Amino acid sequence: MIRFLFTSSFVILFLIFSVPILLIEWVVGKHNPDLKNKTTQAMVKWAFRGCSVLAGVSLDVIGMENIPQEGAVLYVGNHSSYFDIVLTYLCFPRPTGYVAKVEMEKLPLLSVWMKNIHCLFLNRDNIKEGMKAIMKGIEELKSGISICIFPEGTRNTNPDMILPFREGSFRMAEKAKCPIIPICINNSSAVWEAHLPTMKKAHVIIEFGKPIHLDGLSREERKFLGAHTRKTIQEMYDRNKKLI
């Protein structure tokens, strides 16, 4: 319980005391968007690193060499914990936004930081609004900002099987003509979700798979891109589960 109190207090204090920083970031963004991206990424990584340390996470990262040195990518991962965002963001070498539920846009201060790192707010109950988010994601990818999606659609509580992927978000990679980087996350729910509200020390493994280039796939694989990517991640998940 102490870890939870320390971590949650750290998040609340960061959000409160970051208000002047948000104002400065807003001014910087008006004149130098690239500088704003870099400084925002540095600040968010600092905050997320603090959260992971306070929560007692031991993180192993595999396959960083599979992330292209240049250009935007669509990261696709399995999802079982809020810490999936905290820990994956620490690994991303360049500015990257997440596809989040539209309800997150209503959270004060947190939503501002989310917008600053180019998060997209997806309304799955409104097709028109959902398509706007997808189109925005395509624009971000074409401009050089990577996007990370968790296409299971919800946090998965099954420790053995990754849920089927929703195919809609994969259109971003097709339209932006960017590679897909599979992300396999093992044991992140052991930090918090497995024993709410207590946080416990946990060993988490994140593996970045080899890039999936759409022009190298068969017609069938491109038609069911979500299923193809899910199969790749499930194989990594089963392999890395033995290392926990």
What's the helix and strand layout?
Elements: H1 2-17, H2 19-31, H3 33-55, E1 57-62, E2 74-77, H4 83-91, E3 96-101, H5 110-116, E4 120-122, H6 127-142, E5 146-149, H7 171-176, E6 180-186, E7 202-208, H8 219-223, H9 225-241
Parallel strand pairs: 1-7, 2-5, 2-6, 3-4, 3-5
Antiparallel strand pairs: 6-7
Summarize the structure.
The protein has 9 helices and 7 strands.
Features:
7-stranded mixed sheet, 7 strands, 244 residues, alpha/beta, 9 helices, single chain
The fraction of residues assigned to DSSP E strands is 15-25%
| Major sheet description | 7 strands, mixed
Uncertain spans: none
In N-to-C order, the SSE pattern is HHHEEHEHEHEHEEHH
Q: Portion of residues in helices?
A: 40-55%
By oligomeric state, this entry counts as: single chain
**Sequence of strands across the biggest β-sheet:** 1-7-6-2-5-3-4
- Classify the secondary structure makeup into a structural class: alpha/beta
Number of strands: 7
What sort of overall outline do the alpha carbons produce when their principal axes are compared?
globular
**Radius of gyration (Å):** 18 Å
Our count of helices gives 9
